[in-house]
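B., you asked whether I could sanity-check this one before it goes into the benchmark set. Here's the sequence:
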Amino acid sequence: MLRKMKSLSNSKMGNPPVLDGLTGDHIKSGFQALDTQLGKDAQLRREKRQIRIICSGGVCAVAYLRSRATTKDIDFYTPHPDDSREITYARYELNMHDARGRARYPDGWINCEMGAHINNLKGGEVLFANSVKNGVVLYTGEHLVVYAADWKFQFVGKVKRAFDNLEYAQEVGEIRTLDTDKDFGDALHFLNQIMRPRNTPLALVDIKNWYNYGHFITPQMAKMVNICYAHRFADDACRFSGKRVISI
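And here's what the prediction gave me:
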């Protein structure tokens, strides 16, 4: 209700309302606008280089996997502080609207909050290198290249968040299930990207070594992932004994 009131207020003042979510088209337009804005930087043009960033979460689900329609924002990371500042500055310079000019992008539609989920620079460099090596490109332009973060990083992060959401809902008396949790849905789709080229299940002991959040994945969580994955991706799960994609 509050968001709706703000949108109405903005409309009356002559400002278009803020987008309620970013679609695949919004994401593509955003990257294109950033690319153009970065091209106005004389030093970047002189060096003839592209800024490379990795993105995780909803942007990958919407723009690459198309497993859901919208995402709240775009989380990015680069181990190079100067490049992070360039992206943030370019965003500030833009007055982003949708294609018809009927709605404007949220102030933080692309942000570097992803860095909060990375322990240190060394860990970030490893994640960045692995993501670039995987070669899942969300956007490529003259001055900007965007990669999907390593699916392993995204999977364990989303599983942890989904179970955190479930625990919080229980504490406050809300009714919430994994079936309706978008983070858990994302986790299953990210896991599908990991499993498709594999012929053997993943070992939980190995998953526990995946980036920051792997060690949070418990046997009970893994069992729920197995059950839900077999339901969501039945054809793929049939390739594995007992339809278990994670051995516990």
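One thing to flag: DSSP finds eleven helices and seven strands in the chain. Otherwise nothing jumped out at me.
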